Amino acid sequence: MSSPDSAASYARDLAQIERANASGRTPAVFVHGLWLLPTSWDRWAAVFEEAGFAPVTPGWPDDPATVEEAQAHPEVFAGKSVGQVAQHFCDLIGKLERKPVVVGHSFGGLITQIIAGRALSQASVAIDPAPFRGVLPLPLSSLRAARPVLGNPANFHRAVPLTFEQFRYSFANAVSEEEARELYDTFAVPTPGEPLFQAAAANLNPWTEVKVDTTAEGRGPLLIISGEKDNTVPWAIANASYKKQLHNEHAVTEIVEMPGRGHALTIDHGWREVADTALTFIKRSAR
């Protein structure tokens, strides 16, 4: 089931791609993660545009255009798999006339690495990226952060919201209570349950969609950014992903830890420091 404005949202994505193509600039594609919308990248897009890139902030399939619409039609988030979302972004990137740089957060960071493994990006930044097959650490904090979804098997087919307390733990543990509430009210939306179940079972399923080609010749330079206090994707997971990506002999792989930052590091008061870290790497690495 699609929301009333899902077609308009897809048209918005295509309009951004047309603008990027018309600009002649290198596109910068941003991939959001669970419980967020493309609007979570709006400030980043402005920074990258000022730096000379053509920003593109696509939605996941059927993403509502606004948080208000998402709250009114939570059912549109249900039934989205990692493979479906990854292919959606790859198809959109295929409409770009220039090879983009790609930045993703959380499950968007996983999608970013899938895109890079298909040689569709010239440089990539994965921020607190969800794990893929072969990434083995499973810290207790990650299990607790995923419990609102994984705690009920029926959530596989559902759209699942977070309560404020759950959002506070999984996203906003490194900011004040007041800022956490503001972030929750401004950005949080329901999310499909299926990707979390897929990630949880990835190392048990040889046919999983949650896999990344870490050795692809055309992968391009990759930076992984980790928030020091992230409960959802702690350093153990980010560093294990980094070590897997080090198997790539064709392009540089780097990792940096942002001190004192949680999973909300792309949207909280310190977002600009993270954006500048990503932008510095991309400007150094992109052709």
From TrEMBL:
Coiled-coil spans in chain: none
Top-level taxon of origin: Bacteria
UniProt KW keywords: Hydrolase
Protein's recorded name: Alpha/beta hydrolase
InterPro entries: AB_hydrolase_1, AB_hydrolase_fold, Carboxylesterase_BioH
One Pfam assignment: Abhydrolase_6
PANTHER family named among the record's database cross-references: HYDROLASE ALPHA/BETA FOLD FAMILY, PIMELOYL-[ACYL-CARRIER PROTEIN] METHYL ESTER ESTERASE
Organism the protein comes from: Streptomyces cupreus
